[in-house]
Amino acid sequence: MRELNTNQAQQLNPETNHLPTTDHHHCQSTCVNTHHSCKNKTRGNQKRVNHPFADPKPDLKKRRTVWTASAHIINAVIGTGVLSLPWAMSQMGWGLGISCIFIFAGVTLYTSNLLADCYRSPDPVTGKRNTTYMEAVKTHLGGKQHVFCGLVQYGNLAGFTIGFIITTSTSIVTILKNNCFRKNGFEAPCRFSNNPYMIGIGIIEIILSQIPNFHKLSVLSIIAASMAFGYASIGVGLSLTTVIQGNVKSTSFSGSNKGRSSADIAWNILVAIGDIALASAYTQIAVDIQDSLKSSPPENKVMKRANMIGIFTMTIFFLLNACAGYAAFGSNTPGNILMSSGFHKPFWLLELANVFIIVHLLGAFQVIVQPLFRIVEMLAAQKWPDSSFITREIPMKIGQIKYTINLFRLVWRTTFVVVVTVLAMAMPFFNDMIALLGALGFWPSVVYFPVEMYIVRQKIRKGTFRWFGLQTLSLFCLLVSLAAAIGAIHGLSQAIGKYKPFMYKA
Predict the structure, then answer these.
(1) 352: helix, coil or strand?
(2) Topologically, how does it sit relative to the membrane (predicted)?
(3) pTM > 0.85: yes or no
(4) DSSP string spanning 169-183?
(5) Is 338 in contact with 354 (CB distance < 8 Å)?
(6) Packed helices 145-184 and 283-290: angle between N→C axes, nearest 10 degrees
(7) What is the SS3 assignment for 119?
(8) I need a labelling partner for 349 at 20 to 30 A (CA). Which of 48, 162, 230, 236 fits?
(9) pLDDT digit string, tens, across residues 178-201
């Protein structure tokens, strides 16, 4: 972004971060006999203002609210990972499992609120906008740290999209397997290839990816968030029903250790801690969500409310799913209680839950990938500002529906979705790779950068009690990241040998 000199900076409009446009008024008052040149000058100003990348907030009448921001957050945190929390609880037991849910919810809420104050600088209410996470890091920390931030953030987001395609196709196959079991019994060899369904998912995502930005994504995000509530509630309901019926399995305060070696126990606890920590994280899209909010009331205050709503909702659902699922399955808790290794009946309810998962992941894919789409398109517009291929919005109309198509957006986003779909088919073990990517990205994106930016903003002196407290939090989360990464590497080494590219059947 082009830097402004001191005099220009003092003239910035706090609502738009643009310099006041005075050329047209000056032209009207001084150019009485040069109407044609004034008209051309006015057009030039209009073209600059309407440029799709000129203003981070081009349509202030359609800015989003705390509820749409909360929906985006819920989409990010209440994903299918919530259905694996009963397994994590079974590995750690009631004591450590419940403690981890509360600890990581608190850490995420605290650091997300620190990050909310970094959206504008130097003042969190009236300062200049930092419209991406990278830009916020560059503004506050300087140097090349924003490059590292970008590699972590966008590498993780790209990896998550591959995992979403794999998981969505697995839910489709689960529905097919449940129908097969219903007709032929649970001993029938019901296996199906995921590839045709991954291709179908890719086609749907290509269409949905033409939604230009977070501002236009609110309806899809709200629908997807409601689907997350749906399948999470079904998981809780089935688990509680099992418990109420008296089919309670043996549980433990410290986890089940029967029939397992010390090494297996250690590996599984590391993976379980990592699962809970990663399931709680959404800071990689937090700045982009905040950039979709209205300017009044101040974005940082609205974002903090959205953080509270999202994290509170997340914690309730995490506790319900983890505790009820563990009580229902005990030490034999599967990795996902709604997939074929979990509940088997009632068929119709399990199929409904998997339909909810499919719809949720189709929408969550778009929420997760928007920051990656956006940064590429912004960089392209800055590099080639006069290219109509990159900047021109072509108006289209189907019946009463009006929309615009951008050729660069169409080509770039379609190419991205095709690539990640092919990678999903080639590497069905990629969910284990995502665990590694998420573990490596958790500490820098969730804790390190928000804490370091906060220290710079508040001018906290090194060696003070406050500084030591923040660094202790950062060190703790670094150790969690390393532990989760070690567990993910162990799981990945076991998974690679089980699968063949493009040949996976669930």
Answers:
(1) helix
(2) Multi-pass membrane protein
(3) no
(4) HHHHHHHHHHHHHHH
(5) yes
(6) 110
(7) coil
(8) 162
(9) 888 888 877 778 888 889 999 999
